[in-house]
Amino acid sequence: FEYCTNLSEVNFGKNIKEIDYQAFIGCKNLKSVTLPASIEYIGYNALGYTGDWSENDGKVVGFTIFGRKGSDAERYANENEFIFKESGTSIVGDADMDGSITIVDATTIQKYLAKVITESKIDLKAADTDHDGSVTIVDATRIQKYLAGLIEEL
Predict the structure, then answer these.
(1) Is pLDDT larger for residue 43 or for residue 69?
(2) What is the 3-state secondary structure (H, E, C) of 4-42?
């Protein structure tokens, strides 16, 4: 998947054990990944790197890894100074509950606000990206800004 610049989402299988050296380098639109507990090895620069070493040390701004506390996912995030968030609970920004933060989450919030979908199709806690206790268009805008790299975390 090296230099797949349009790649914005990856769904890793529950039994994946390794992500090899530079497997996703250059995937500038891949802003976050959720790694299963089965991960035992993540290779050098495998995730979160643009390949452009002249900017931000080659890192995707705000790159976030969701995974199990104490796992190789957390180790990789810490060693590479990426954001790590423990999974298993609501992921802030993951309004459509698919395990990753994409533009679809912003659209899910917009559909909810327009009453196109019901509460059963949205994680309201995850959708509340500004943590003010309600889901508004501001939350959808924050997701868009996060995906564009304008803010580093939700």
Answers:
(1) 43
(2) CCCCCCCCCCCCCCEECCCCCCCCCCCCEEECCCCCCEE
Asked if 84 contacts 65 with a C-beta cutoff of 8 angstroms, the reply is yes
First to last CA, the chain: 26
The H-or-E segment that residue 67 falls in is: strand 64-67
Q: What are phi and psi of 66, to 5 degrees?
A: -100, 130
Q: Is 76 helix (H, G, I), strand (E, B) or coil?
A: helix
Select from 41, 147, 54 the least CA-distant residue to 93: 147
Write down the residue that tokens 């564009």 correspond to.
148
State the pTM of this model: 0.57
Looking at residue 28, its amino acid is K
